[in-house]
Write a structure and sequence with these properties.
mainly alpha, rod-shaped, single chain
Amino acid sequence: QQQQNSTPTSPSRNPNKTTKPTTTASIKENNVQMEEEQSMVSVDD
């Protein structure tokens, strides 16, 4: 588990996710967040 701490696969902007293992569920969550951000940006545009 120390390896996960030394090399966190999660983005630094989401420190909470670093504690969770990299699973398809977490990846899907990240994708959803990115999609939401992109949609907001498109609306701003």
